[in-house]
Amino acid sequence: MPQRIAIVGVGESAFGEVPDKNVWQLHADAAHAALDDAGLGKQDVDGIFSAGVDMMHPLVLCEYLGLHPRYTDSTMTGGSVWEYYVEHAAGAIGTGLCETALLVYASTARSDVKKRLRTGDLPPLPRGPSQFEAAYGLTLIGKYAMAARRHMHEFGTTSEQLAEISVAMNRWAQKNPRAFNHGKPITVEQVISSRMIADPLHHLDCCLRTDGGGAVVITTEERARDLKKKPIAVLGTGTANSHFTMSQWDDWTDMIARESGARAYARAGVKPADIRFAMIYDSFTITVLLTLEALGLCNKGEGGAFVSGGALGPGGRLPINTDGGALHSNQPGMRGIFLLIEAVRQLRGECGDRQVDTGGLALVNGTGGYLSACGTVILGQA
Amino acid sequence: MDEAEYKLFRNHLPIADGETAPYWEGAKQGTLRIKRCTACDRPFFYPRTYCPRCGSDATRWMDASGRGHVYSYTVIAHNDVAPFKEWLPYVVALVELDEGPRLVTNIVGCDTRHVKVGQRVEVVFEKIDEAVTLPKFRPV
């Protein structure tokens, strides 16, 4: 029986618009915040899990931080990679390859665009599988828009229903002073009358683009007992990926979270009906709707009705993304780490005005690529 | 990097290789070519040496009918990258061929507001330059 693991520290750098810090500084700020939260120092870290900036990302990062880990993982599945890393950390810690894992992420996506160091819609290099996609001008948002259109066609889902998801995340953001859109409440009407980006997705169906970083520290449940904060147990994980280019995705209303979720539920010994609080990757409103269905949190095709009437917001039947999510709190690009951070804070009872009754469980689902790669993590009391 | 340099280094046009050249050559000649696995007897897209379903390398080129329907689509209203920003608004669709495989393409030759899921479409070939012709689709 492998060692059980627990999350013992979480932390963030400054986020939103942070033009005066470089991306490695933000990694360091987030890492030190999470280690402080755990009552650990960098000398305790012997496993590093990070990706996203450079080809040899972990080498740059470890050099910058002054780390010499005995375990290194730089798997890359986009925004869900942090949930993949939790599963990989369970394997590495469970088999003794390392004891204390640091997952750390940061990007300066917002400031890079403002400084004209990058543009919003970089097409992929037109070789390999992407040679069949790149010439047609299919933007990242366009991929999600096509998924939304298909769901509307099969199930009659409406733009108003998708807008409900954005409004619910926005209502949570009003309770989180650090959220980018704190103090900027919106309505369903404002979402559907906002500028069209890729039909049927409007500007307010789309996530923010911010700077910022986050970090999570994981160790054995045994070691966790002596640390500063109440440890949060990793009860079960699952990962799965379905496609990279859009022509290879078999059923556009059936996200691969169905498989990652099934594995996580089985390992944790819980079922969808047990879940009272979740953190669901919300790159776009449609991402949330498809994920809720795939995870069995509502029936397939009924996502539109399920999210209506403020169901996901404060006081709703299934509170999700209580920090305000990618739609209204922050989104540096690969946001899955912030899902873990908020879930841990909710389970610890640290969330103040936005605290929900978790029932001692939190389901986290990251989605990376183009609705391509899902990592599900179920957290609970250690 | 200015826009001219950007286009030079990140050109959006396909870079054919030995495995895919017959597809792009077919397009130049006005034929939509896909591959079929002779082991599991199924056509597939995009072209690969090994069948993505059963793993067999007994895969052969075949001419597709060039007809199918729209599985889904979007009207792109925002794109800040050349040349696409000159096209706005334009339709990107996933077309399901009558043979089964699907591909990403543009729907051309009609008002962007008239595209629908399920609509019947047929291939047209748009010559970009001497090297590249792109298969696109128009309503039947």
Describe this structure in words.
- The complex is a heterodimer of chains A (382) and B (140).
- Chain A has helices spanning 23-38, 57-65, 81-94, 109-114, 140-155, 159-173, 188-192, 221-224, 257-268, 285-294, 303-307, 325-328, 336-348, and strands at 5-12, 47-49, 71-73, 101-107, 196-199, 201-202, 212-220, 232-241, 278-280, 361-368, 373-381.
- Chain A is α/β, with parallel strands linked by helices and 382 residues long.
- Chain A has a single domain (5-114, 207-381), classed as Thiolase/Chalcone synthase (Peroxisomal Thiolase, Chain A, domain 1, 3-Layer(aba) Sandwich).
- In chain A, a hairpin with a 4-residue loop joins β10 (361-368) and β11 (373-381).
- In chain A, α6 crosses α10 (285-294).
- The longest helix of chain A has 16 residues, at 23-38.
- Chain A is globular and about 55 Å long.
- Chain B is globular, with a radius of gyration of 16 Å.
- Chain B has one domain (3-139).
- The longest helix of chain B has 8 residues, at 21-28.
- Chain B is built from two helices and eight strands, in the order ααββββββββ.
- In chain B, the strands form two sheets. In chain B, strands 6-5-4-7-8 form a five-stranded antiparallel beta sheet.
- Chain A binds chain B through residues 119-123, 125-127, 129, 131-139, 141-142, 145-147, 149-150, 153, 195-201, 245-248, 252, and chain B through 10-17, 20, 45-46, 52, 71-81, 84, 87, 90, 92-94, 101-106, 117-118, 128, 132, 134, 136.
- β5 of chain A pairs antiparallel with β4 of chain B.
Short description:
The complex is a heterodimer of chains A (382) and B (140). Chain A is α/β, with parallel strands linked by helices and 382 residues long. Chain A is 34% helix and 17% strand.
List the helices and strands and how they pair.
The complex is a heterodimer of chains A (382) and B (140).
Chain A: E1 5-12, H1 23-38, E2 47-49, H2 57-65, E3 71-73, H3 81-94, E4 101-107, H4 109-114, H5 140-155, H6 159-173, H7 188-192, E5 196-199, E6 201-202, E7 212-220, H8 221-224, E8 232-241, H9 257-268, E9 278-280, H10 285-294, H11 303-307, H12 325-328, H13 336-348, E10 361-368, E11 373-381
Parallel strand pairs in A: 2-3, 2-4, 9-10
Antiparallel strand pairs in A: 1-7, 1-8, 4-7, 5-6, 8-11, 10-11
Chain B: H1 3-9, H2 21-28, E1 33-37, E2 42-44, E3 59-63, E4 67-76, E5 90-97, E6 102-107, E7 120-127, E8 133-139
Antiparallel strand pairs in B: 1-2, 1-3, 4-5, 4-7, 5-6, 7-8
